[in-house]
Amino acid sequence: MTLLDLGLVTYEAAIQVQEQAVAELAAGGPQRIILLEHPPVITFGRNGGEENLPFSDRYCAQHGIHIVKSNRGGNITCHFPGQLVAYPIMRLDRRKGGLRAFFHDMEESVIRTLAVFDLQAGRREGKAGVWISGKKICSTGIAVRHWISSHGLSLNVGRDLSLFTAVTPCGLTGVQATSIHRELDRESPSMAEVKRTFLDAFSNVFGLRISATRQG
Fold first, then answer.
1. Which of the residues 60, 78, 138, 170 is marked catalytic?
2. Predicted pLDDT of residue 77
3. pTM for the predicted model, two decimal places
4. Helix (H, G, I), strand (E, B), or coil: what is residue 149?
């Protein structure tokens, strides 16, 4: 598996990179994991989510919040600087356990990442993502075409989660978001350190060697 680190990039640009990576994998190219951060954006999944956005498009535009309809699964979510987004482009037909195992392993990678920073996280029955004491720290949502995955997960790292006040996260009423910095009550670890730790965990959980880093 090769790593592509795009840095801060728009949602639309990331979609184009994913589509190219999916096409290359379908043609016999490498599996990839794409890491990035997004400028403020609210996305709706295939299951909708417009009803969970209490503000108008005009309000969002005035406050620099982009709105996108995505082809991933799930409901509404948001992305912003200070949130680590990981998009694994992988062949799911060559893995045991199908989609359920894939989601489990993505979540496990995050749970092990957080454990390195002394944060005890886990799953909630019937709810996707990763949670700490009832608060959601990581969301998941993927798209699958020809048994190749795209999209993936978003892990809140920084303290500023204000964009979550504009949405009902994943359409779950009463859900509170949290982040690594909020849970630790300090401005560390850095995004670079979280990335390195996550890649180690992801590599171990999925049994893959990750190489060929390229910075955006």
1. 170
2. 75
3. 0.87
4. strand
